[in-house]
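Chain A, query sequence.
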Amino acid sequence: MALQMAALKRSTSGAFVARKVIPKDIRGEYAARFGVGWEEKFHRAAGISEHEAKARFGEWLAEIETRIGQLRATKSAGPQPLTRHNAYALAGRWYAWFTFRERVVEIVRKVVPEKLRDMFDGLRLPADGVSGKDGGQRPERETPEKERSSTGADRRETEASERKVAEEPETVLRQARTKALIRHASVVDAILTTGDADGKGSPGQMRELTEARKAFDDVRPHGWRDAEAAYVREPDLAREAGSGRINRAIRALQLETELRTDPKHRADRFVERWQKLDHTSQRQYQAGDMSGYKATRSTMGDMAKSLERDPQLESILANRKKDLGIAFESGRRLGQELAFTHGIDVGRGRGIGI
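Chain A, predicted structure.
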């Protein structure tokens, strides 16, 4: 039987996709355990980088191959061999680790002071057998005979040193991200507090915001976009994070990242927000608050129109028309059908609140 490897591709919308067919010999067992009998599908939004997509694909493929290997091993009552499939999956995991390591090194070079960076550059493990910063020769790597004769204390000391060196770049990265988050939040809070009706600050504040966004993006790609999306939903978070209280802001930022990268989460958020706005507009109309009613309906119109620029989200929401209040098919695209059903079809100027 020819060996078929799953391949990462890009769809017409720019998303990263792949398919993995479940082998015939374990389809029944796989379906019973994981709920999928024919094939597994991989999907990541077009907004993520190619490096991240490859890393996530490697992890996904590793998980599927592990499942297949385990089911076959259970079925044959034998050990699981390292097949070419598993080797490919392990390569994906290695790629994820390697790209993360390279990213950490790049960030350390940007954010660590020159003097401290020199200290890192001169730091070597005892087993490297190379000269340190002071020019002194480090001990050479031990031979197998010497390694076998090493004491437990020596090995523990070496392992502790390795862990410390490995943890230092990650610690620097966390500190840089925290600093960037606080700086960005402070600027956003200042603009929200003193800005004009359109939410824009002074020229100096806008320059500072641009610089803060760039610094944030350097240590966490898309970080400032996710943070600002969270601040729009809950403006008090910007003030908290700007003052150094970052726990709630970090959780909100992580949620926004999931929503941005996971189409299903984005669909859930769209439906939740649409239903909330719909209920709000009904209350405002009943209370005679026509100004608030028109503003809410305008926001709903913007949401419906946004689907024209997001075919992936529109495709997912096509199966949730009932949740969006659409009872009958009209033949329109979802965004147009959504606006038409709720009387906010801006293009035709129907109803109150246009």
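The beta strands are 9-10, 16-21, 39-44. The first helix runs from residue 27 to 34.
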